[in-house]
């Protein structure tokens, strides 16, 4: 079986992908950074335990390495890298800073640009010509583009063209990959994900990103102040492109199997979910009434509305969007299924998430 090397392996999307690869008996190499409290292996085991309801034993086809994204050779011995990259390997670069606050600019660019450059350097030095480099990008590298976001390269642009530095850094990183494809014949593909949510069939939701971050903030306020009426600066008719984790994993697994892939794929949902449905779910699940009001000015806001508005500094920039993503190339190569997020499945995910967040379910330490 082909060897799959994955960095940022303990992250939400990567760990779910790895879980599937292990079940399909692929040989997986996981690069994880250890921290002061836990080793790379402990961190990986923890996250896999969480996915498998505590029943995970590191199998023979998973090897875990403690790496350093920005160090030469990832801080690993040369002979280890020679051995790992031997033969036909698919390498997935997942590691990224998903921060969005403007203060984190340096960290975002260091991780999402310098980290990618170093990753390409390691891959180019050790991998064979037939090995492939997959860069996990975001569909929101589209920035504030008006019109359809196509599966092609877009030039770098100033921060004004984006909602935050995260989006901009991913556009820069895509262009870095483009440069290596054109100048060094890097065998690379770019997979642009939209907002990844929980499991569409089970409702299990282990991410606190995007709409779940918003849900958590509303929950915290609602529990402290029951029966509050809260106006939120959200366009009820706008939509969110939410792609379930099981769908993303299915697409990613197909990229391993399909030999001829386009350079760029927009890995996004076909049907978007309306903001009004998300607000309705929260209103049903929590003792709060949420009133969408897109023209709500700061000066008119109550204290609570201001608290939520500040907490929404990231989410807010996506609450008035109806971005169109082109998926022509995705549709050409990937098998279609109708496993799409709906208002009902998102309701199940929010239910699970709020339940878990209120401490009803066991939590994992690291
Ligand atoms: N989740 C989404 O909705 C979404 C949407 C579009 C695109 N994506 C892309 O998908 C990829 C995975 O996202 P995710 O949601 O799974 O994120 P995640 O759970 O936050 O995982 C990010 C991973 O990157 C690692 N990382 C961050 N900074 C690092 C550094 N300086 N050195 C080494 N490793 C570092 C993290 O390691 P630590 O645990 O050690 O910090 C973690 O393993 C990212 O590239 C992201 O941009 C995600």
Short description:
With 366 residues, the protein is α/β, with parallel strands linked by helices. The protein has helices at 12-23, 40-51, 78-84, 105-126, 165-184, 211-224, 245-257, 275-285, 303-311, 328-333, 343-357; strands spanning 3-7, 27-32, 62-66, 89-93, 132-138, 148-149, 188-193, 195-197, 228-232, 239-240, 242-244, 264-267, 273-274, 288-292, 324-325.
Detailed description of the structure:
With 366 residues, the chain is of the alpha/beta class. It has two domains: 220 residues, NAD(P)-binding Rossmann-like Domain (Rossmann fold, 3-Layer(aba) Sandwich); 108 residues, no CATH class. A seven-stranded parallel sheet has the order 3-2-1-4-5-7-12, with helices on both faces. Helix 4 runs parallel beside helix 5. The two termini are 31 Å apart. The C terminus is likely disordered. NADP nicotinamide-adenine-dinucleotide phosphate (NAP) binds next to helix 1, strand 5 and strand 8.
Order of helices and strands: EHEHEHEHEEHEEHEEEHEEHEHEHH
Q: Reading side by side through the largest sheet, how are the strands ordered?
A: 3-2-1-4-5-7-12
As a percent range, the share of helical residues equals: 25-40%
**How does the major sheet shape up?**
7 strands, parallel
Overall pLDDT confidence: 94
Bound molecules: NADP nicotinamide-adenine-dinucleotide phosphate
**CATH fold node name of the largest domain:** Rossmann fold
Q: Specify the CATH architecture of the largest domain.
A: 3-Layer(aba) Sandwich
Structurally, how many domains make up the residues?
2
Total beta strand runs = 15
């Amino acid at each position: 079986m082909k060897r799959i090397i994955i960095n940022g392996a303990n992250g939400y999307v990567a760990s779910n992908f790895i879980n599937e690869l292990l079940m399909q008996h692929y040989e997986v190499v996981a690069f994880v950074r250890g921290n002061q409290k836990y080793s790379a292996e402990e961190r990986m085991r923890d996250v896999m335990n969480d996915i498998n309801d505590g029943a995970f034993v590191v199998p023979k086809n998973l090897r875990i390495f403690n790496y350093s994204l920005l160090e030469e050779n990832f801080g690993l011995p040369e002979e280890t890298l020679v051995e790992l990259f031997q033969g036909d390997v698919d390498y997935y670069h997942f590691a990224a800073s998903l921060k969005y606050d403007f203060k984190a600019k340096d960290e975002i660019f260091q991780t999402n640009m310098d980290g990618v450059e170093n990753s390409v350097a390691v891959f180019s030095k050790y991998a064979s010509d037939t090995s492939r480099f997959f860069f996990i990008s975001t569909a929101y590298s589209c920035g504030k583009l008006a019109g359809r976001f196509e599966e092609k390269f877009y030039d770098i642009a100033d921060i004004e063209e984006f909602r935050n530095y995260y989006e901009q850094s991913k556009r820069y990183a895509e262009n870095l990959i483009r440069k290596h494809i054109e100048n060094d014949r890097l065998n690379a593909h770019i997979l642009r994900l939209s907002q990844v949510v929980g499991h569409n069939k089970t409702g299990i939701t282990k991410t606190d990103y995007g709409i779940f971050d918003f849900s958590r903030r509303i929950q915290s306020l609602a529990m402290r102040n029951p029966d509050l009426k809260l106006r939120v600066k959200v366009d009820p008719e706008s939509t969110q492109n939410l792609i379930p984790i099981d769908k993303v994993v299915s697409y990613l697994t197909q990229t391993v199997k399909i030999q001829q892939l386009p350079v760029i794929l927009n890995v996004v949902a076909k049907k978007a979910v309306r903001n009004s449905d998300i607000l309705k779910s929260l209103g049903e699940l929590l003792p709060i009434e949420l009133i969408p009001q897109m023209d709500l000015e700061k000066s008119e806001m109550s204290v609570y509305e201001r608290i939520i508005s500040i907490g929404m500094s990231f989410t807010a920039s996506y609450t008035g969007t109806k971005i169109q993503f082109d998926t022509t190339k995705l549709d050409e190569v990937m098998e279609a299924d109708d496993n799409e997020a709906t208002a009902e499945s998102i309701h199940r995910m929010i239910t699970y998430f709020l339940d878990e967040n209120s401490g009803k379910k066991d939590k994992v330490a690291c």
